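User: My instructor asked us to take a sequence, write out its structure as tokens, and then describe one feature of it. I'm not sure where to start. Here is the sequence I was given:
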Amino acid sequence: MSSSEQTHFRLRIAGRVQGVGFRDWVVEEARARGLNGWVRNRSDGTVETLVSGPDAAVQDMLRACTQGPPAASVTGIDIKNEKDPAPAGFLRRPSL
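Assistant: Let's start with the prediction itself. The structure tokens for your sequence are:
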């Protein structure tokens, strides 16, 4: 896969990821990489995000999400391929 190909992943990030600024951090990091998608808290305590964009930038974002912001403690990430790209822009969605 070339770095110019578009990839789309849905992530469910577990650990100490709510109440530590994780969603705002994801928005900033994704926008800095020129990615599209969204992020939201889930009622099970995870953070869910859809990231879409050039493969190299998406892979870099996936690596960043394994650490998260300083106050976070990521214990696991469930990654699923998505067929369809996210709409343009990167948004913080209401909690689910």
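For the description part of your assignment, you could build on this observation: The CA atoms of residues 37 and 64 lie 16 Å apart. Try explaining in your own words what that tells you about the chain.
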